[in-house]
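user: can you give me the structure for this one chain? tokens are fine.
assistant: on it. calling the predictor now.
[tool input]
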Amino acid sequence: MADAGGIPEIACDESGSDGENLTGGNTDVFAHASVLLSAESAAGHVQEIRNRIRSPAEEYKANHLLREKHRAVLEWLLSVSGPLYGHAHVHLVEKSFFVVDRAADLLLGDPEAAVPLFRHGRRTFTEAEWKHFLEAANQLLWVRHEGEPDTPVEHFFRTLEELRQRYPGTAAAETLSRLAAERSRALAYRAGIQDGPFVLTPVLNPLLPSILHTAAHWSAGGRPVRLAHDRQNMLTPERIAWIEGAARVRGIRLAGLRLVVSRLDARVQLADFLAGIARRIASDELNGRGDPALTALLRPYTGAAAVWGDERSWARLGPATESGGRSAQLNSPV
């Protein structure tokens, strides 16, 4: 649980990573889970899960626990009497809101504009129009784009103009007008993408800011922490150095981040279970098919810093005093 210097090490893993493809990927929620347990106790809990499920699989994943026949094991794992309660945390990201949040921050320098745009836009536009807007914003911000650098800019601003003309005088159109006035910022972003910081820290990848949120959660109160994260292609040495530097700038007491192999670290396996479980439960709640019992069991683990725009689902998923709509500003380059 702690190194020789007494600094606790938090084990982390994620679920729902589609890179920067947030509108056309396989999942609509990203979850970053973290666990603070000793290696010995974590190994014991993983073995107990295996004993309860009795699957011949060499490596267990969240899907094992999410099967209906193992419902009792899942409820035990998340319950007050389970091994994770009080020792784990989940940072949730609603991907469609993350796209709006990032676009508002990049073009307006005002992430707070994301909340009204997200909520008014969904209520004002048709489902197809809203999806088209999100896809255009995703393409604008996506670092990897084949073809002329201005193409995503033209597509995005053409989409803005079409929606402004269809819905004049609406609250959504007011924010769209603000965005439409920032074509120069969009062009500068696309033109400078290869030479700027965004290749190192892609605006649309939720992993890096989620790691910073996780470190901020566990170091609250000023205690330093280390992170042990499952190996991930995104976490290159350069990006790990960026995370550690960004944490210092923001006053987050992150003493270091190292990569480990999940199957060799029971703590990370538990974080993997929790991330996959949280993503599924949160996605079900987001899409109106939530299981009230499971949502209630997840709620003690979800952090108030979640990047979430949907009010209805967040009222069930998040801390009781929070209203949702958090910013992703921790992704901003140093």
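assistant: here you go. The first strand starts at residue 9 and ends at 15. The beta strands are 9-15, 29-35, 88-94, 225-230, 254-260.
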